[in-house]
Amino acid sequence: PSTVKQPIVQPPTRTVVSPTATVQTQPAKEDRHETIKGIKKIMVKTMTQANTIPHFTYCDDYDMTELVKLRKKLKKLYQQEKKTLKLSYMPFIIKACSLALMEYPILNAHVDAKCETITYKAAHNIGVAMDTRDGLLVPNIKNVQLLSIQDIALELTRLQQQGYQGKLTNEDMQGGTFSLSNIGAIGGTYAVPILVIPEVAIGALGKISLKPCAPENLDDSSSSSDDDEDSYPDVEFRHMMSISWSADHRVIDGATMARFSNKLKSYLENPMMMMINTK
Ligand code: CAO
């Protein structure tokens, strides 16, 4: 029989580090001190005050698949008509919040410093936390209850541009009644938002991302039967968004927050329902 020649395998070479070797480092630079002033100083005050309010956080996941499809179609239509409109998810979410606030006006309220009076605000001035040149700012879109989704998109773009240029005005910043923080525009899933006092509720939006989910309408034929208890239905990939609400627990209870969130969820999961309800 012919003999097969085995290849000669060389043992791997190793770099032996002498135990006496030392890492050469540059001397540390001097610490830098910065006075907290301007908008950062205001943030110290408002956040510290807000954190004294007993609040709770409630989270849920929304299926945004239908809205993702709708936005895609609308963006295409705008492109075909050569119209320039920055149509992110925010204008839809802001409008849906306003529609849900119609049914839960307590979430669009202010409370005074001593918590003796609740003022149900007539206008839905929805604040949007913005990562601006000057740091975190929360300008608001006025009278969302009267605006179309397109109007909201235009106003959000204006505020965003003003924010990036450091040109937001006092008028842009004052009079907010309810707030949203789209941290998902940067990344992340959950955040515990801090109230923008004297408002009583704020929501933090996570990143919309494809996640495996159980099919929504499981009928008996596709669900696991008694004979095969270990079988599971095939998963579907859906565009999911987590949302975290913080609310002033002195005047808002968890059940109200959950019902409001369910209402908002129903609009965002079935955007056609928004059209029917939009005045
Ligand atoms: N999930 C997935 N995609 C998202 C998203 C989300 N949650 N939010 C935004 N996007 C997408 C947008 O749809 C857009 O995509 P297209 O280019 O395809 O249209 C893109 O990301 C850029 O969006 P944008 O950030 O310019 O616009 P926006 O209207 O969604 O958000 C604003 C505006 C001002 C909320 C946002 O720019 C911002 O500043 N977010 C940070 C908020 C923040 O710092 N919160 C923390 C507060 S506590 O410190």
Q: Cα distance, first to last residue?
A: 91 Å
Low-pLDDT runs of 5+ residues are none
Under the CATH scheme, which class?
Alpha Beta
Radius of gyration, in angstroms, nearest whole number = 26 Å
What do the pLDDT scores average to? Answer: 90
Bound molecules: oxidized coenzyme A
| Binned strand content | 15-25%
CATH topology heading: Chloramphenicol Acetyltransferase
CATH architecture: 2-Layer Sandwich
Number of domains: 1
Helix % is 25-40%
Number of helices: 7
CATH superfamily: Chloramphenicol acetyltransferase-like domain
Largest sheet: 7 strands, mixed
Give the helix/strand class: alpha+beta
Sketch the topology as an H/E string, one letter per element: HEHHEEEEEEHHEEEEHH
Protein name: Dihydrolipoamide acetyltransferase component of pyruvate dehydrogenase complex
EC number: 2.3.1.-
Main location: mitochondrion
GO cellular component, one term: cytosol
Please tell me about this protein's structure.
By secondary structure, the protein is α+β, with helices and mostly antiparallel strands. It has a single domain (56-216, 234-277), classed as Chloramphenicol acetyltransferase-like domain (Chloramphenicol Acetyltransferase), CATH 3.30.559. 31% of the residues lie in helices and 19% in strands. It contains 7 helices and 11 strands. It has helices at 38-50, 65-80, 90-103, 149-164, 170-173, 254-269, 271-277; strands spanning 55-63, 109-111, 118-120, 126-128, 130-132, 135-137, 140-141, 178-181, 201-205, 209-213, 236-248. The strands form 3 sheets. Strands 1, 4, 7, 8, 9, 10 and 11 form a 7-stranded mixed β-sheet that branches. A two-stranded antiparallel sheet has the order 2-3. The protein has a two-stranded antiparallel ribbon with strand order 5-6. Strand 2 and strand 3 (118-120) form a beta hairpin. Helix 3 (90-103) packs across helix 4 and helix 3 crosses helix 6 (254-269). The protein starts with 37 loop residues before the first helix and ends with a helix. The model has no long low-confidence stretch (mean pLDDT 90). The structure holds oxidized coenzyme A. Oxidized coenzyme A (CAO) binds at residues 88-90, 128-131, 136, 156, 160, 181-186, 205, 207-208. Oxidized coenzyme A binds next to strand 5 and helix 4.
